[in-house]
Amino acid sequence: MAKARLFRLWLALGSVFMILVIIVYWDNVGTAHFYLHTSLSRPHLPDPHPTPGPEEGKDFTSDVDEFLDKLLSSGLKQNDLSRRKTEQRPLLASPKPALSNMEENVRGYDWSPHNTKQNPDQDRLQAERRRVLRDFCANSSFVFPTKERSFDDIPNYELNHLIVDDRHGIIYCYVPKVACTNWKRVMIVLSESLLDRGVPYREPLDIPREHVHNSSTHLTFNKFWRRYGKFSRHLMKIKLKKYTKFLFVRDPFVRLISAFRSKFELENEEFYRKFAVPMLKMYSNLTSLPTSVSEAFSAGLKVSFSNFIQYLLDPHTERLAPFNEHWRQVYRLCHPCQIDYDFVGKLETLDEDAAQLLRLLKVDQLLHFPPSYRNRTASSWEEDWFARIPLAWRQQLYKLYEADFVLFGYPKPENLLQD
């Protein structure tokens, strides 16, 4: 009996070794690197899940999990030392990227410096945000779609917003219209996943926008299956346990206004053909429309905010395809009830939260968050934007985004939901 168990153990270890060799090979020829000696900067938090006993669930996959866990943790000291050496390089100022006057006006960037001093209450505020999120995820009386499913039930294609930096042990779930362009830039600098004439980018704002949103630039969870096959979920779970996980959110209704302004008030050929044309035909009863967005804008043919809200509330929209990521709910993008996030930032307090997060990640000497990206789409605009939207529509829209309001601690907009 003992010999048989020993044989099984050696067979399992041999299989794991061969798989790891293949993994390393694949990563060496891939677009991003999987570092076996990884610095894990995540603060040690109590594990909310019970740990099985020594014999319970002891099978081949648990052996693999344990082996990979030890392997990923083995290089902590060496990589920490190399990181400290790397992070000694001085921080350099970088000019703002060039923007057209129209884009500057609509997107509302503010590149002026702002005070980002540490607030002694920031740690308490962060703990409260995470507590609210955990409590409502555990509250059986608060129900929304996909809440009860497990992480294993999430399809791979729904994990495409989880960006991984193996060099520093970080996972970022990006939410469009929540400063995600600059957070993606930060992730590129940290992971060194993009080179400029053979040298990794050092300044976030030096990275061209078209490269920032190129999916091949980032290592995301949905790519794990192609790289690691049946071990992809095991690796995801190990990284989710070890790495620091963060996301940034904003008031859901304000995010919708920002998405509308960005995608339908600016000339965007892709969004015009894919979304504006169907909306204008369906909700404005227009049959003959220009083929290009520039012609449409010249003729004064634009999607109204009312058209956009009709589109979101139309049951046919979701039947045809999932919401576009720019207006898809955060709980569908980042799965906050299946993933225990270590840091929940908000756009409303971006300067303070970004500085606090970079200190937590121990990379604040390596880079700064690009200076005060501030979108002027403010919460005070909600009443103006929703003034011509029927009350019944506003109430339906709130129900559609209620989970995001509740999970992330945004107050219910009573002034928009009552006569």
Automatic annotation (TrEMBL):
Q: Hydrolase as a keyword? A: no
Alphabetical GO CC annotations of the entry are: Golgi membrane
Which branch of life, at top level? Eukaryota
Write out the entry's keywords from A to Z: Carbohydrate metabolism, Glycoprotein, Golgi apparatus, Membrane, Signal-anchor, Transferase, Transmembrane, Transmembrane helix
List membrane-spanning regions.
Answer: 7-26
Q: Does the keyword Transmembrane helix apply?
A: yes
Name one process (GO BP) from the record.
Answer: chondroitin sulfate proteoglycan biosynthetic process
What topology does it adopt in the membrane? Single-pass type II membrane protein
Question: What is the annotated localization of this protein?
Answer: Golgi apparatus membrane
Entries under InterPro entries matching the protein:
Carb_sulfotrans_8-10, Sulfotransferase
Q: E.C. number, please?
A: 2.8.2.-
Mind listing the GO molecular function terms for this protein? chondroitin 4-sulfotransferase activity
Which family is this sequence assigned to? Belongs to the sulfotransferase 2 family.
Could you tell me what this protein is called? Carbohydrate sulfotransferase
What broad taxonomic lineage does this protein's source fall under?
A: Eukaryota, Metazoa, Chordata, Craniata, Vertebrata
- Which gene specifies this protein's sequence? CHST12
